[in-house]
Amino acid sequence: MDQSQLGDQCYMAGDHDGAELAWLRAAEAGDVDSMAKVALLYDDLGAKDQALRWYRPAADGGNESAMHNLATLLEDAGDNEEAELWFRSAVGRGRSAAMHDFALFLMAQQRAAEAEEWYEKAARAGEVKSMCNLGVLYQDRGDEQRAVAWFSRAVGAGYSRGGYYLGRLAHARGDMATAARWCRHAAQGGDVDSMYATARLALAALDFDEASYWGVRAADAGHAAAQAEFQVHP
Predict the structure, then answer these.
(1) What is the mean pLDDT of the chain?
(2) Which of 6, 117, 150, 232 is the most buried (most CB within 10 A)?
(3) In this predicted model, what pLDDT tens digit does every residue of 116-154 receive, in sequence order?
(4) Are the beta carbons of 163 and 182 closer than 8 angstroms?
(5) CA 130, CA 154: separation in Å to the nearest integer?
(6) What are the pLDDT digits (tens) for 178-197?
(7) Residues 41, 73: Cα–Cα separation, whole Å
(8) Mutual angle of helices 144-156 and 161-173, in 10-degree steps
């Protein structure tokens, strides 16, 4: 078993110190994938300088995840120029998660038209968060048909958050029954905002048992408004 495989085995067993040691040995011997793995380990631990030290050679060596993570790290550090270069390298390899994050980066730079292009590419590659963000863009410009199509596609891909957006659209149309159905669907999938929305819709329908159930669940999950409204204090 080589050091890279040993690192993988240690990590899977929960031995992060052993994983770090093995991956470092492999990385120092020139293994690009191990460079990316040890960089991510440092990144998760908050050791950003050490992460950066290993992301760079991994990215230079062609590791797509390292390109993506390096771009994100540089963006967080405020180095937008270099971050964009690495985002473009990652998306150029077809990495859909990087397409989504690149779109977020472009939105933060107020480059909405470019962001929309990358949201759509990511969405068509299966990124469910991009499907919803693209739906929100269409909703904001009043194109409800396309918004519904993308939200529905996200739901169909198993992303319950899409139901929250469909519920909001139905609520805006005054269709409270459909709003409640979609928000409940998303709440059952674990979406906390939808739990609170379901509780509020149940209150409006005078269904106090359901309102209490979803309100307390949202509060327990940390939803601030739900905590103020539904949390039971001793």
Answers:
(1) 94
(2) 150
(3) 999 999 999 999 999 999 999 999 999 999 999 999 999
(4) yes
(5) 9
(6) 999 999 999 999 999 999 99
(7) 13
(8) 150
The phi, psi pair for 142, rounded to 5°, reads 85, 10
The answer on pLDDT for 22 being more than 80 is yes
What's the CA angle centered on 161, arms 114 and 224, to 5 degrees? 105
Distance CA 95, CA 29 (A): 27
Query: What's the farthest any 2 CA atoms get from each other in the chain?
Result: 67
| CB-CB neighbours of 194 under 10 Å | 26
Q: Which has the closest alpha carbon to 26: 51, 6, 49?
A: 6
Counting Cβ atoms within 10 Å, is residue 48 exposed (0-12), middle (13-18) or buried (19+)? middle
CA geometry: angle at 87 spanning 81 and 89, to 5°?
A: 110
CA dist., res. 91 & res. 68, Å (int) = 8
Cα dihedral 20, 23, 26, 29 sign: negative
* Whether the predicted pLDDT of 66 surpasses 80: yes
The percentage of residues in the chain with a pLDDT greater than 70, rounded to a whole number, is 98
